[in-house]
Amino acid sequence: MQGLRETFRRDQVWPFLAGEQNKVDVSNQMILYVEGLNLSFDGFKALNDLNLYVKDGELRCLIGANGAGKTTLMDVITGKTQCDSGTVYFGQTHNLLTKDEADIAQLGIGRKFQKPTVFEEQTVFDNLELSLKTDKRVIQTLFARLSPSEIDRIDEVLAIIGLKELRFMKAGALSHGQKQWLEIGMLLVSDPRLLLIDEPVAGMTAQETERTAELLTSLAGERTVIVVEHDMEFVRSIARTVTVLHQGSVLAEGTMDQIQNNKDVIEVYLGEEAAEA
Ligand SMILES: Nc1ncnc2c1ncn2[C@@H]1O[C@H](COP(=O)(O)OP(=O)(O)OP(=O)(O)O)[C@@H](O)[C@H]1O
Ligand SMILES: [Mg+2]
Questions:
Q1: Can the peptide bond before residue 15 be classed as cis, meaning omega within 30 degrees of 0?
Q2: Residue 69 in domain
Q3: Is beta strand 194-198 parallel, antiparallel or unpaired with respect to 224-228?
Q4: Where is the ABC transporter domain (predicted)?
Q5: What is the three-class DSSP state of 88?
Q6: CATH code of the domain covering residue 157
Q7: Which of 2, 65, 137, 249 is most open to solvent, judged by the fewest CB atoms within 10 Å of its CB?
Q8: Number of domains in the chain
Q9: Which protein residue's CA is at the shortest distance from atom 6 of ligand 1?
C-alpha cells in the first residue's frame, strides 16, 4: 500500500505532475527520434523520408523555404496530423504515433503556433492560471483555489517571461511581443520537457526579438526547444545546431556557419534570402 500512496502523492505535487508512466527515457541523450517520416496531401509529398534526432536539452533551429514541411512536421509530432509512414519517439519508449494530441501534451510536449491565442479579456495572471487549470495532469476543478505551490509556479513563470509587472494587465492590452511571451508562459506552467515553437519573432520589434532570443536560450538546457524561424539574424543569435528542411526532407544540418556555407542550402534557400536582402 505504501507504494500506491507514494505514487498517488507524487501525481499531485509540483513539479512531479507527470507521474511514473510519463517519464521520458533519455538515457542515450536523445529526446526526439523522427525516422522515415512520409506524408502526402493529394499526391504532394509534404514530408519525404524525413529523419531528425534532437538531443535532450538542445535548442534546435529548423529553417527552410515556405512549404518545406516545418509546420507539418510539428503537426505530426504533436498528433495534430497523422503521417502515412515512419516513426516518432519521445525518448526511447514513447511512440508518439500511437497517441492523440491530449496524450502527447500530457507527456510534456508543448506547442506554440505562430499566432498568439491568449484570452484578451483576461489578465496576464488569469491567462497563466487558466492554462495551469486546464492542464489535465493537475487534479482539481476549474473553480478550485490556487494552491500556494501553484501561485509560486505562476510567479516563477511571470519572472521567466518578463511580465511580472504586467500581471494584472488585460492580455489584450499587451504588445504583440508580450502576447507571444505570455503564450510561451502558458506552456511553461505545465513544465514541458519539449517545446515546439513556430515563428516566434514574426511581427516583433528588434528589441522584442532580442528578448525572445534570450528567453528561448534560457529555456534550453533544462528543456528541449525546437524553433522554426525565417529571421536569419535571430536564428544566428540563438542557434547551436540548425536543420534545413527542403521539400519535406532534411537538406543539411550543422552550425550556422556550416549551413551558410553549404552549397545546396545557398542554392535552394539562403540564395533567395540573400537576393532579397
Ligand atoms: N492540410 C493540408 N492539406 C493540403 N496540403 C497541406 C496541408 N498542410 C500542409 N500542406 C502543404 O504541405 C506543404 C508543407 O507545408 P508546411 O506548412 O509544413 O510548410 P512550412 O515549412 O511550415 O512553410 P512556412 O515557412 O510557409 O510556414 C505545403 O506545400 C502546404 O501547402
Ligand atoms: Mg509553417
A1: yes
A2: yes
A3: parallel
A4: 32-272
A5: strand
A6: 3.40.50.300
A7: 2
A8: 1
A9: 41
- Using CA atoms, how far apart are residues 112 and 225, in angstroms rounded to an integer? 11
Question: Does any domain span residue 94?
Answer: no
Q: pTM for this structure?
A: 0.89
Confidence of residue 135 (pLDDT cuts 50, 70, 90): low
- How far apart are the CA of 158 and the centre of ligand 2, in A? 28
Cβ of 246 below 6 Å from ligand 1 = no
Q: Cα separation of 161 and 220, whole Å? A: 14
User: What are 170's three cell numbers?
Assistant: 488585460
| Ligand 1 in reach of 68 Cβ (< 6 A) | yes
What is the C-alpha R_g of the chain?
19
In a domain, 242, yes or no: yes
- Tell the burial category of 229 from Cβ atoms under 10 Å away from its Cβ (0-12, 13-18, 19+): buried
Mutate to test the pocket of ligand 1, among 38, 72, 198, 269 (most ligand atoms within 8 A of CB): 72
pLDDT tens-place string over residues 33-74: 999 999 999 999 999 999 999 999 999 999 999 999 999 999
Q: Give per-residue pLDDT as tens, 165-178.
A: 999 999 999 999 99
pLDDT single digits (tens) 138-166:
555 556 788 888 999 999 999 999 999 99
- For the segment 257-274, what is each residue's pLDDT rounded down to a tens digit? 999 999 999 998 877 665
Tell me what percent of the residues of the chain surpass a pLDDT of 90: 77
Q: What single-letter amino acid sits at 249?
A: S
Please identify every residue whose CB atom is under 5 Å from ligand 2, which is an ion.
Answer: 71
Q: Ligand 2: distance of its center to the CA of 155 in Å?
A: 32
